[in-house]
Each structure stands twice: as structure tokens, then as C-alpha cells.
Amino acid sequence: MKIVETYSHLNGWEFLLVHQPNLWKEIQDVVAAVKAETCKTKVSKEKTMKGKLLYSPVAMNSAFSQLLRSRLWEESRVSYWVTKNERLIRKTITMPA
Questions:
Q1: How many domains in the chain?
Q2: Are 67 and 33 in contact (CB under 8 A)?
Q3: Does residue 61 surpass a pLDDT of 90?
Q4: Could you tell me the residue range of the domain that residue 40 belongs to?
């Protein structure tokens, strides 16, 4: 696969470019290593495309997960409420949902 578009949530992409260029390179390498055609495993049930092979989000996620895990990446999640008030976000981020 190749990266054709980016969306920088909370300036994450810019942070990677400036502060973690090695991580950005790793991400690019993983994306390039995913063979999109092998992820065409979902059989369409739609009336106009019945039986056509489509890209499977499950297969694609699995391919990315395997490649990232092979590079010792681990999943990490943080839940928080979104607000324009930065001080409030910082105050509530450590609180349970």
C-alpha cells in the first residue's frame, strides 16, 4: 500500500515529523509492506455487486497489526472527553470515564 492522504489528529503527524522521525519512517515502511490485494477477501452481498471481492477491513487491520507487532509495537488507548478548554482536558484526562 501507499500513503496518499493524511489527517493529523491533534497535530500528531507534525509531532512525528519533528520529534519522532524514526517512528514515522517505521509507519511508512509498514504501510508499504501491506499487500492490499491479499486483503480482498470480503464477498459483496450488495445487489449491484453480488459476489464481487472487496477489501476486507478485518483483513487489512490484521495485516497492519501483524507487521506492527513484529516491530514490537503494542496497542495503547486513552479515553477522554473533548472540549475546547485545554486546561479542562488536562484536568480530566486522568479521571475514569
A1: 2
A2: yes
A3: yes
A4: 35-97
